[in-house]
Write a sequence for this structure.
């Protein structure tokens, strides 16, 4: 990593910190940050369509540039093949922001099922699905520092949507966003724990309200910008603990967040369910994974989240099993 690259990245971070933060959607927030970076002239900001798999169709400066600058690439890749071509053209380095979710598509979140699986299994990719502009801002700033100031290898990926949010994060919240999980209300203890990522967090929040209003069930709500990062860290900790059975156990952010309670955990994503299934081996409580295709073709609605929570509680003997059927009838679910 050249000193000039690290210096450029620090100037980018300073420019973004000096700008008025945008408390809007992830898409609008990143677009606003891109404008600031363009004005600073310290970063490559590329606004492109990644429809082709041919490297030759990418902007020509990939081939002619010798001095690296921080890279923010705004694109619309629907498939893993398109994203693979893009990441290869950028030497698997940079912050890649995909706005495909904001466009009409037959696929969940606008992406073919192979794309999120490719992201989850790519060792150099750190994928995020931010729910709010504040989350997206924290992730982009962290990517600039990690990749270009600290010089770590790899690339960040952000799935962007245009649903507005008024979330405000404190310092601890911004740190926990990067780790993959934080509570939307600190200090709140619930009968069930609801986890949501990206746009699905909105349905999770509505489900928590319905559980309390209709069923007298209190729910914790957690935003999980990266199920994959949580699962990778948990897997690494589990591996280390197996290899060092006599040493003090390594912990992980997922375990620390869910410690101290056996309340069921319902984890929701707008991507297909396998993205959330990654957490299953590391959750020490009843666990239900919900994604596109789990209970309906699209992302699970608030009503299916409520029913899934009630079913998990009924399986544990914490509520009457009849409430599950009553909820199915009340919400007209088949």
């Amino acid at each position: 990593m050249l000193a000039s690259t690290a210096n450029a990245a620090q100037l980018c971070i300073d420019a973004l910190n000096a700008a008025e933060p945008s408390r809007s959607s992830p898409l609008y927030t990143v677009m606003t940050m891109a404008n600031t970076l363009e004005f600073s002239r310290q970063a490559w900001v590329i606004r492109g369509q990644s429809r082709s798999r041919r490297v030759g169709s990418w902007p020509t400066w990939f081939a002619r540039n010798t001095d690296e600058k921080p890279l923010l690439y705004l694109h619309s890749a629907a498939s893993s093949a398109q994203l693979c071509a893009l990441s290869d053209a950028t030497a698997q380095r940079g912050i890649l922001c995909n706005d495909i979710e904001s466009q009409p598509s037959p696929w969940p979140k606008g992406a073919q099922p192979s794309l999120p699986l490719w992201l989850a299994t790519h060792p150099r990719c750190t994928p995020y699905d931010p729910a709010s502009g504040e989350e997206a801002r924290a992730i982009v700033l962290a990517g600039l520092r990690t990749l270009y100031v600290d010089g770590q290898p790899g690339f960040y990926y952000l799935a962007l949507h245009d649903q507005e949010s008024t979330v405000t994060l404190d310092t601890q919240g911004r740190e926990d966003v990067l780790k993959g999980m934080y509570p939307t209300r600190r200090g709140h203890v619930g009968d069930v724990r609801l986890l949501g990522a990206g746009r699905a967090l909105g349905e999770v929040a509505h489900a928590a309200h319905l559980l309390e209003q209709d069923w007298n069930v209190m729910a914790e709500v957690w935003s999980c910008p990266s199920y994959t990062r949580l699962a990778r860290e948990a897997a690494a900790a589990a591996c280390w603990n197996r290899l060092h059975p006599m040493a003090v156990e390594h912990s992980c952010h997922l375990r620390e967040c869910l410690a101290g309670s056996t309340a069921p955990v319902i984890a929701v994503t707008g991507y297909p369910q396998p993205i959330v299934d990654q957490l299953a081996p590391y959750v020490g409580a009843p666990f239900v994974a919900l994604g596109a295709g789990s209970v309906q073709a699209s992302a699970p609605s608030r009503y299916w989240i409520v029913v899934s929570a009630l079913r998990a509680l009924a399986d544990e003997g914490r509520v009457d099993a009849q409430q599950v059927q009553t909820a199915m009838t009340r919400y007209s679910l088949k």
